[in-house]
Write a structure and sequence with these properties.
- By secondary structure, this protein is mostly helical.
- It has one domain.
- It is built from seven helices and no strands.
- Helix 5 (about 115-125) crosses helix 7.
- The radius of gyration is 24 Å and the shape is elongated.
- The protein starts with a helix and ends in a 6-residue tail after the last helix.
- Residues about 1-15 have low confidence and may be disordered.
């Protein structure tokens, strides 16, 4: 079981040693969507948990003069506000994530080579590793790595 992650790390170190500083910067820019998706997933889980908590809270009117419990009302309101804030935060980040994916997709299409564009899409929008890309495209791992580095040289990214 441990062999696969080690092999992936070996590939990562090997390709990183062969990359120029410019290629590394471009690769990191292209990897933003992968990292953003992890954060988006965490925000989604937080939203769901806040929604569940808010749905399970009930106001208790026991032993309260006038039939109201300000503590329980405020507690309930605070849970609802937290749920709404979580959903708002998630929706805002979702839009940022989708915009980021569009930026990356637009940058990939500046390569103007369908094979290399496919490799970049698989890698940076499909989050596939080199071995899976090679298998999907019927190329060797070595060819995919070479074409990937060529793609990093060709891609036109405007940082800003």
């Amino acid at each position: 079981m441990r062999a696969a992650p080690i092999q992936f790390l070996v590939w990562q170190v090997t390709i990183n040693n062969n990359m120029t500083t410019e290629q590394t910067i471009k690769r990191d820019w292209l990897n933003r969507a992968f990292l953003a998706e992890k954060k988006l997933h965490a925000l989604e889980i937080q939203c769901e948990l806040d929604r569940e908590r808010a749905e399970h809270i009930t106001v208790i009117y026991d032993k309260v003069v006038g039939g109201k419990s300000s503590y329980r009302e405020n507690h309930y309101e605070n849970k609802l506000i937290r749920m709404l804030n979580s959903e708002e935060k998630y929706n805002k980040y979702l839009q940022e994530y989708l915009d980021m994916r569009c930026e990356i997709e637009d940058a990939i299409h500046t390569i103007d080579d369908p094979i290399i564009e496919s490799i970049m899409v698989y890698r940076h929008l499909g989050y596939m590793n080199i071995e899976h890309i090679a298998e999907a495209m019927n190329y060797s791992d070595r060819s995919i790595k070479r074409k990937y580095l060529e793609g990093l040289d060709k891609i036109d990214i405007h940082f800003g």
